């Protein structure tokens, strides 16, 4: 997938030194008092760089609180004046963009539901032509890397170079411990494709509950993400939206204090040497893994030919069960994670089936 983003580094539009960028604030602006009180407590923690609050809320079902609307922009502006914190809010239409900019909103974000709709993103992009404001693009609700990248490209083509992505997890039909599955690999793929693009993690919307936030936030730092956007409310229990996942400013401060920051680079030559050696060892093993997989596929091909010539079905469930059972026992004895082993075997098995299918559907050389 070719990417075409022309962006400037995060440091050039928001310099936090070596520290990650921390955006925090309520899911929704509810009342002027709630916005101001929360903003002051967040500013007092000394750990928050930007104040967030939703003014227009895209809700899954009608009848829920759909945001306080334009009046809330004035509360945000006041919070900015009183605390000195720059402010950010979600925009989903050209009108939102105009109103937010007129109210002095410093950073705009595009929500997950909007990112999923290219018409909406294009409308926002058109409204941003000639405007020099940073834009954060949340991943779409569905796990689709192209859609995420496409939204970033649309905004970028409107001339916005101060861009970042927000990883807020992906909706899935299966109910898991998370409200939105993190699917880290998609965010990592984006980082790999556009190494200069800052990626900010949104543990609140991934978790859907307070308890898991520290775990996801730490993981985000460990994955070298550049910041966090966390929902924080002066009294989460009475929040009008996303009550279960919001934390008090004090809880946020404690949470941030307990996260370990790991540096991507080190100036220590001994450390660099050791790392380089370990990476070499990994490369060697990876080469071996590839070679072994290739040898395995060659045997699979032979089996495919044999099955074809003897009219045997490709999939034999009992054989597959045996592979999973025996291999995962060995893997467990070798301290490999069971879920990882099963996933890996499934991947290999699917490829083997594909290969055998190919062979079953080509005639033997003699008959061709
Ligand atoms: C939000 O940040 O409050 C929000 C609506 O998030 P998302 O677009 O990720 O669902
Ligand atoms: Mn929310």
UniProtKB/TrEMBL annotation:
Residues 269-360 form the Chorismate mutase domain. Keywords: Transferase. SUPFAM superfamilies: Aldolase, Chorismate mutase II. GO terms for biological process: chorismate metabolic process. One of its GO terms (molecular function) is transferase activity. The keyword Transferase applies. InterPro entries: Aldolase_TIM (IPR013785), Chorismate_II_sf (IPR036263), Class-I_DAHP_synthase (IPR052899), CM_dom_sf (IPR036979), CM_II_prokaryot (IPR002701), DAHP1/KDSA (IPR006218). Its EC number is 5.4.99.5. This is chorismate mutase. It comes from Parapedobacter composti. The lineage of its organism: Bacteria, Pseudomonadati, Bacteroidota, Sphingobacteriia, Sphingobacteriales.
